[in-house]
Design goal:
By secondary structure, this protein is of the alpha/beta class. 24% of the residues lie in helices and 26% in strands. It has a single domain, classed as Dihydrofolate Reductase, subunit A (3-Layer(aba) Sandwich), CATH 3.40.430.10. It is globular and about 50 Å long. The N and C termini lie far apart (48 Å). The structure holds NADP nicotinamide-adenine-dinucleotide phosphate.
Length: 231
């Protein structure tokens, strides 16, 4: 029976942009991902989200982690998911973990601050030279129109040699990078599921229309959107 092309060939268009040398002048490549329901939610009102994408989407997320230098999440994702943000489902290294927590309100008892790979806690106040938060290094970043200044976040990471950046969620973080034109690529997995309400995938002030290519990920559909980054 024809099995179709091997996975490495089938997925090449998805991962080749991450494997190539970044074309942007600053040598960085910024990609965001989200898994959403058909009606555009990434979590229930209570913040549960682990089951939205299927196993192939989860493996895809771990593959993106393994190909990136850093994985970035907003404070609400840490608060509700308590993720480890490591690469476990595919071979490859774990990225540096970066948490956006403007006022440094998260406690140090989350998994990401307790053990595992290098972690940076980015905040606009409550930092200071050499401060630590559990096992994480605290780094102060100026404020911007959307929480912390996104250009300053990317410059901070690039100065540490972190140039391939995955914005893993949640919706506010992905939406803010999108609004700031700070993404080279957006991957949205759409699951065959209606939720009827919850946390929206992205919050934007203006409508945006894209060109996309689509890929099957098990029962889910992955939408791959190339973007023009201006930050
Ligand atoms: N389905 C999926 O793919 C997926 C993926 C990840 C997460 N999730 C779900 O998403 C939910 C959380 O998402 P969310 O949209 O509510 O919040 P979020 O994006 O996880 O966190 C947003 C918070 O991050 C902080 N932040 C600081 N600077 C920021 C900046 N420049 N840009 C963006 N955020 C900045 C802000 O909090 P401060 O003011 O406190 O700094 C902001 O309110 C959880 O329920 C989680 O389970 C789903």
């Amino acid at each position: 029976m024809d099995q179709g092309p091997p996975e490495t060939t089938r997925f090449a268009p998805l991962y080749d942009p991450l494997l190539a040398m970044p074309a942007a002048a600053d040598g960085c490549f910024i990609i965001a991902r989200a898994a959403q329901s058909l009606d555009g939610y990434i979590a229930t009102k209570d913040g549960e989200s682990c089951w939205i994408g299927g196993p192939e989407d989860l493996a895809h997320t771990h593959r993106l982690r393994s190909l990136c230098d850093a994985v970035v999440v907003g404070s609400a994702t840490v608060r509700s998911d308590n993720p480890r943000l490591t690469t476990r489902l595919v071979p490859g290294p774990s990225p540096v973990r970066v948490v956006l927590d403007t006022e440094r309100r998260l406690g140090p008892h989350y998994q990401v601050f307790e053990s595992g790979p290098e972690t940076l806690l980015l905040c606009a106040s409550g930092g200071g030279g050499g401060a630590v938060h559990g096992t994480a290094e605290v780094v102060t970043v100026p404020r911007g129109p959307f929480g912390m200044d996104i250009g300053a976040i990317l410059a901070t990471l690039a100065a540490r040699g972190l140039r391939r950046i995955l914005i893993e969620g949640g919706g506010i973080a992905v939406g803010n990078f999108l609004r700031a034109d700070a993404l080279d690529r957006l991957h949205v997995t759409v699951a065959p599921l209606l939720m009827g309400g919850g946390i929206p995938a992205v919050r934007l002030a203006d409508a945006k229309r894209f060109v996309w290519t689509t890929h099957r990920l098990g029962d889910d559909l992955l939408v791959d959107i190339p973007l023009v980054r201006r930050v």
